[in-house]
């Protein structure tokens, strides 16, 4: 919150919060139309910009005016310039979130109209809205499944920051990326650890793109791609990696995944959870917003370090170390107790 915002009357500040859905939709429009991408090469007049992205110039100008107050754009008369913040909605930058914005618009926004039902029943708003579990609904559409893979790969890579530089993977010949989607993370890990082999494990619809990922990285001879359901069983491995997986599930479901890993793991195997650790207290933190995303879409949750320790202990694991990087993700290393 800025100093100016803290000086506003409470009713005006509350009105700003209530109107947050309009800001979200404006950002979704900018991402979907590719406005930020068009501005990467320099400032543009709003009429020229609107023509390039297929938008009404007056409407686009008003959306830009709204978002400029939050630092997404800079305006000078009729000329629009993108900021570093706005560049995250463009294709190309390493910290791009354009696919995340497009994914949220198509999958997340409408179900949150049912958050009141979640508050009353505990059931995910998305399951109520779509009439089935969210991932089941997404996987019915190859286009949405691909967008989800692309969005989550970009998001988790940004959220990790330099975590893989400061965290040394525990020893073990075979690394299983459980719930590894298209294998982006596993490819990066095996590139860093050339003496190891890997297993990419996820639902058939999720790992279908994994072979291309491994071939592009020159790793197809070192990776076994296994389709399956981690609620049923997982392959044997020396090191298990769960990256941005357990936050999708409530404690009971997350415990089933961990129990299956404990059952399959040989003696001495290690577990590495790459996920968010929510700070204690009332201070603002973006992970607290992501926690509500998990609640509304999946019935999942983000966890504090205390909650992580409890979850792992209930499944028979001992948390040995927690390593922070420059992003919002941590590495939590555990062994079977």
TrEMBL record:
Transmembrane segments: none annotated. Keywords: Methyltransferase, S-adenosyl-L-methionine, Transferase. This is Methyltransferase. GO terms for biological process: methylation. InterPro entries: COMT-like (IPR016461), COMT_C (IPR001077), COMT_dimerisation (IPR012967), SAM-dependent_MTases_sf (IPR029063), WH-like_DNA-bd_sf (IPR036388), WH_DNA-bd_sf (IPR036390). The keyword Isomerase does not apply. Residues 15-89 form the O-methyltransferase dimerisation domain. It comes from Micromonospora azadirachtae. Pfam families: Dimerisation, Methyltransf_2. Residues 129-317 form the O-methyltransferase C-terminal domain. One of its GO terms (molecular function) is methyltransferase activity.
